[in-house]
Fold this protein.
Amino acid sequence: MTRVLVVDDEDLVRNLMLEILERADFEVAGAATAEEALGLLERQSYDIVVTDAVMPRFSGFELVRELRRRWPEMPVIVATGATTDSTITEARAVGANDVLTKPFSHGELIGAIRSALDAVR
Amino acid sequence: MSERLYRVAFEALPGPVLLLEEATGNVLAANRAFLSLVGREAADVVGATPPYAWSDGTGSSSIVEAGEDAFVRVTGLYQRADGTQVPVQSVRETVVDSETGERISVVWVADLTERDQLEQQLVQSGRSAAVGQLAAGVAHEINNPLLVILGMTEFLLMEAEAGTKQRERLELIQQTGLEIRDIVRGLVEFAREPADLRSELSLEELVRSTLVLARRANLAKLVEIVERYPAERLVVECSPNQLKQVFLNLLSNAQAATASGGTVVFELSRDDDHAVVTVTDDGVGIAEDVLPHVFEPFYTTRRDAGAAGLGLTVSRRIAELHGGMLEISSTPGRGTTCRVRLPLVGGGS
């Protein structure tokens, strides 16, 4: 089963994404901070990470940069509510495979994860 | 220098000047620029004494010190003979005729119309910038909770039976949520940073391709679009997609204002070192009290028709980001004209 790690500091958003993915038969785990996400990744392997962009202290962009350094092959999707050009450009620049703009439908989230996985397989 | 030469020079001064007898205010002379400013004949001005027909004397005065001299500076409105008003600023200086000892006031007048317009534009664009910064922050704050609302609704919709009141209500929540999403997207679009991907393009090709697109997408099925292009090629440095968006917005507004069978004219022309795309419709026009608000974000008279009130706001912003401007004029009952002015590459040389 595909293992997805969802990183978002807002509980409601994170839990929603986890539930959407669980119902679509993904194995999921959630982290409220980038530090927590790195801790989980050190203990267990995941197939893909979906992270929020704007989080206090350690942003999603910094997380992507760190993931690229330590797990260069793992696909990462940045989900952002701030859909400005600079946010999208920055997400690409740090090495995100895809950028998903909030709000997205269940189908868009699942579709983005599947295509990112297909692209690396 | 002869007196005649002095008079020629006085007449030819580009700025309006008035000579008064200091004690009485009796007008001794007024140059051509002054007469044209107040829209009056020399006979109506020379010899006049206060109160003057062109000035009600209600301007605000201030003392300006320049070196050892001090001037009285007055800012106010002049009444033209045709009833219109013009904003002016005048400075009064006293000179003494060395031969006769006569004291004469020289009044230098500046027409502030253009300065006032520029100031208004500055205020407007300052407000645009503030709204722009706000947009990115608001988008982030709204999109997260909106994701939760829409995401939860989608779960509930999966469980709701078709045809039930419950399902109908959930669909309404979803639909409304999507409308909020679109408004926020429009706002972010408005806040867009200047596009980096600019290229030098023929404005004619850009207008043509936009209108081809509009016709193909059936965006203008109720009106006839007339296109007029100049013989010369007008090249502007631009982000083609952004300009297409501007032209589509203007077309969409023109169509909404025009009854079936109306005409929308897209005309491309050159004005000195600018290219101008003029979009004219023969529709209902814009009411006088509405016109000053059309560039304000979220201002719309078509809320019922699903308009977000961002089309002109975004279009003007795009024109400004291209170093140009968007102007609009309208006669209620006759139609509306929008002008997009864009700087030509190399000043059009």
Notes: Chain B has eight helices and 13 strands. The interface with chain A takes residues 136-137, 139-152, 154-155, 177, 181, 185, 188, 191-193, 195 of chain B (CB under 8 Å).
